[in-house]
C-alpha cells in the first residue's frame, strides 16, 4: 500500500527512541507527518483539480492588490492587531474557494480579517456564495477591520463565542460547503466546533482547521467520524479533508 511505504520512508532513528518511551506519540507524529503537502498538492487534492488549474489560480491570487493592502494595513497601520492571522495558507484558501465555488462557508476566528478577505475575494470572483464568520471580539471590537468594504456584501459576522453562536449560525445557514476553524485552539474547543458542524457539512464538503499540529483534536475527530487519516492533508499547519 502506498501509505505504508510512505510512512516507512519517513521513519528516522529518533522515532525508534521516542517509540520506546511513548509509542502512541511516535505513531501520532508519523501520522501527522504523513499528511504534510505542498500548497499545490493540498489544493489539487481538496479541490479535485489538476496541477495546471491550481497553478493558474495561485497566479490569479498573487495578482489581487486587495490582499497586499489588507496585510500592509495589519502590519503597518495597526501592528499587533492581527491577532495571529494565517500565513501562506490563505492563498490555498483562496484557490480552494475558487475551485469549489461554494454556496455557504462557515469560519470561526476572524481577528483582523485576513483569512476572511481571501475567502470573500474568491466568492466575489465566483459571483456566488456567502461567508458566515464568528469571532470573539477583543476590547476594541474590531473583528474584520482589515476586510475591504466592497467585499462585505457576501459576509455575515456574528460576534461572540462559537460555543454560543455556532449552533445559531448553523441553524441560519443550513447545510454548509466549507468549514474553517481558526478560533480557540484548545483540544476541547476544537472538538466542540468539529462535532457541532459535522452534521451540517455536506457530503463532499471541505473541512479545514488551522494550527492542527498543536494537539490531536483533528486526528481524534477523524477517528470518531471514520475519516482515514490518509485522506487528510496539511499545508503547512492548515489541515483539511473532504467529507465522504
Ligand atoms: C488566530 S485569530 C484568527 C485569524 C484569522 N483567521 C486570519 O487568518 O486572519 C483567532 C481569533 O479567534 C477568536 N476567538 C478566540 N476564541 C474564540 C471563540 N471561543 N469563539 C469565537 N472566536 C474566538 C479570537 O478573538 C481571534 O480573533
What does this structure look like?
- A seven-stranded mixed β-sheet has the order 3-2-1-4-5-7-6, sandwiched between helices.
- The chain has a single domain, classed as Rossmann fold (3-Layer(aba) Sandwich).
- Helix 4 packs parallel to helix 7, helix 5 crosses helix 7 and helix 9 packs parallel to helix 10.
- The protein has 244 residues and is an alpha/beta fold.
- The model has no long low-confidence stretch (mean pLDDT 92).
- Helix content is 50%, strand content 16%.
- The chain binds S-adenosylmethionine.
- S-adenosylmethionine binds next to helix 8, strand 2 and helix 9.
What is the topology?
Layout: H1 2-10, H2 13-21, H3 23-35, H4 39-47, H5 51-62, H6 65-77, H7 89-100, E1 104-108, H8 114-126, E2 130-135, E3 155-159, H9 162-173, E4 176-181, H10 187-197, E5 201-210, H11 217-224, E6 233-235, E7 238-242
Parallel strand pairs: 1-2, 1-4, 2-3, 4-5
Antiparallel strand pairs: 5-7, 6-7
Helix pairs in contact: 1-3, 2-3, 4-5, 4-7, 5-7, 6-8, 7-8, 9-10
Percent range of helical residues: 40-55%
Please give the largest β-sheet.
7 strands, mixed
State the shape.
globular
Low-confidence runs (pLDDT<50, min 5 residues)?
none
**What letter string, H or E per element, gives the SSE order?**
HHHHHHHEHEEHEHEHEE
Calculate Rg over CA atoms.
18 Å
Distance linking N and C termini: 21 Å
Strands in their spatial order, largest beta sheet:
3-2-1-4-5-7-6
Beta-strand segment tally: 7
Number of helices: 11
Quote the CATH topology. Rossmann fold
How many individual domains?
1
**Do you know the CATH architecture?**
3-Layer(aba) Sandwich
Distinct ligands: S-adenosylmethionine
Average residue pLDDT: 92
Estimate the strand proportion.
15-25%
| CATH level-4 homologous superfamily | Vaccinia Virus protein VP39
> Which secondary-structure class do the elements indicate?
alpha/beta
Q: CATH top level? A: Alpha Beta
